[in-house]
Amino acid sequence: MSGHLYGVGLGPGDPELITLKAARLVEHADVIVYHSARHGRSVARSIAADLLRAEQIEEALIYPVTTERTDDYRSVLEEFYDRCAQRLAEHLDAGRKVVVLCEGDPFFYGSYMHLHKRLAGRYPTTVVPGVTSVSGAAAELGRPLVERDEVLTVLPGTLPAEELAERLAATDSAAVLKLGRTFGNVRDALEQAGRLPDAWYVERATTDKQRMQRLGDVDPETVPYFSVAILPSRVHEETRKALVESAPAGEGVGEVVVVGLGPAGREWLTPQAQDALAAADDLIGYGPYLDRVPPNARQRRHPSGNTVESERAVHALELAEQGRRVAVVSSGDPGVFAMATAVLEVAAEERWRHVPVRVLPGLTAAHAVASRIGAPLGHDYCVLSLSDRLKPWDVIADRLAAAAAADLVIAIYNPASKTRRHQVAEARDLLLKHRSADTPVVIGRDVGGPEEDVRVVRLADLDPAEVDMRCLLIIGSSQTRVAGGTVFTPRRYPA
Q1: Is the pTM of this model over 0.90?
Q2: Does the structure show a pLDDT above 70 at 297?
Q3: Which domains, from first to last, does the chain contain?
Q4: Cβ(6)–Cβ(26) under 8 Å?
Q5: Got the DSSP string for 65-130?
Q6: Distance of alpha carbon 484 from alpha carbon 201, whole angstroms
Q7: Which tens digit of pLDDT belongs to each residue from 73-112?
Q8: Please, are residues 127 and 107 in contact by the beta-carbon 8 Å criterion?
Q9: Is the pLDDT of residue 164 over 60?
């Protein structure tokens, strides 16, 4: 009995865009097949990596040529596909389920189709469609491809510039693929067709390496093969502008949404926060936090420094008053030593009370650090900031002493900065008046980020030189225990 051949589309790059059917087939395959250049790295395999099993057979189909120049390019590839098809036929003859991984859609400029032509007539075959790079790019841009009776034209960048220009001038909307070294010709064709001002560039759509910008501003030397040029719907843009221009003055007040980004990357972001960021017209925030939000060409970004919270709040309310949907981004949870209070303080003034303000929670740093080490916050705890920028140090010291005397676990935010170095040492010495020298202290740095480091030290050994603004400290109570590599505070307190 022969096996079964599957051409499985994985979408443009984000593993969450893999369909349920594609995921099921990949997980249950006997043989996993993917293409790669000579370096051996496969984009398709990287997308599906979390679905693969150690016992599966992997067949890497390594192209003999990619961008190299050769006088016999087509015949070299035809012979390559003949050899690959024979390799897969041996698995199919043995009755195995063979899944060919395909970035995007298998039948949309995909390499799988060359295997399909050679094998589909001889073996049972199923093709599973995937989200194309064109759809992914349009979604990330926030711009529809076609509306009403518009015509969408999909073109390879390998066409001569003259032919590209002719086709681009004649269509409503377009997507041009296979860029890389063809980008210069594509740009020239768009300019010749009078469409360059409307064109957008999207690189590695939906991935963490995504880049989007006006195509005319792109440096040709920076363009990889996995990129696409988009001419979005003209009807949609014209309709949108007309609606904005016809809106009565003073009507249509927007809103301000204060969004918690969590402590690090996209996986820490709630779906509710992702939705608010995607729907926003304007993004406002401290520059490094704003950089964590993937750029979207339709949105305006307003980065600012770290000590201008009130100014940011006023700016957000002014934009919302003009009808804009504004997202004010904040690291962690916006209600924990962050932007929510700053915005609400200003919004409470009579001048702004007609502007709606919402706050969306995020995973706060204390909980992120605690999760990495166990459950040190498993019983009563308090949260304190060592920053004396907005409150006197005497107040901080009194609160630390009270929390220590009450035997609470203490999560300490903002322990130090470049200009604030004495507080950690003073806090340690104050706590030692109430706690054992052996009290465990968790030092969490850049949790969720590339420089993540979580360590446990004795309270007496807490070194201020090892603590900076990117750290959060968790000071244990008298009951907090260290067991192996974990720290936890029991739920029950002794009578």
Answers
A1: no
A2: yes
A3: 4-131 (3.40.1010.10), 134-237 (3.30.950.10), 252-363 (3.40.1010.10), 366-488 (3.30.950.10)
A4: no
A5: -SS---TTHHHHHHHHHHHHHHHHHHHHHTT-EEEEEESB-TTSS-THHHHHHHHTTTS-EEEE--
A6: 51
A7: 788 889 999 999 999 999 999 999 999 999 999 999 999 9
A8: yes
A9: yes
